[in-house]
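thought: fold this chain, then report.
action: predict
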Amino acid sequence: MTGTALVRLTEIDSTNEEARRRAEAGEPGPLWITAARQTAGRGRRGRTWQMAEGNLAATLLLRCGGDAAQLSFVAALAVADLAAHFAPAANIAVKWPNDVLADGRKLAGILLEAGQHPAPWIAIGMGVNLTAFPPGTEFPATAIAALGVVPPSPDAALAVLMDRFAHWHHRWREEGFAPLRAAWLARAQGLGNPIRARLPHEERRGLFEGIDASGALLLREGAGVTAIQAGEVFF
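observation:
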């Protein structure tokens, strides 16, 4: 990605929140923001994202158009590449809509937040457990250090992440979603197996059929297939 800048911070409330502040102040991006410590990191649905010392927290701020939701797949593939680079013996997989797993446990999370002022922008937050992971989470977690390898420094991990994000972002811009969909499905956890999909107001169960051409989850319930735009998946 040409013209990409990087800001390294010692401590911040949230790299996504800092991206929002800068976007609303007129920062055009693309801009990577990383911090050694977050005091108010957050995940999806307002959850707290616990960040241990030595883990990676990074947000990419971009100006964007109407198809920006597919950037979650760009981010997931980039983070999966990062994980495979440093833990090549682990089984690295992706879980819809935006988690990365290692040996069946959550290694990283991705949070997209967007705004319109003063022009459309999107903040793509990526948190990767390098040295430690939170205990007792609803979906079991892990860290690169728990995979039997020496974890990289946050800076070393960020360098790989930036490179791989640029790679997948370029393919998405030049070729559309199809190559990303194929790469994502090749890493998809639980494909063809029973899943539980937690939606905003209900839960549904069925077989994980894949994702459609827009990135929606395809859930087979009996003889029919439903496309789900937003939710969480459990195996």
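thought: worth noting. Residues 197 and 204 are 5 Å apart (CA to CA).
final: tokens above.
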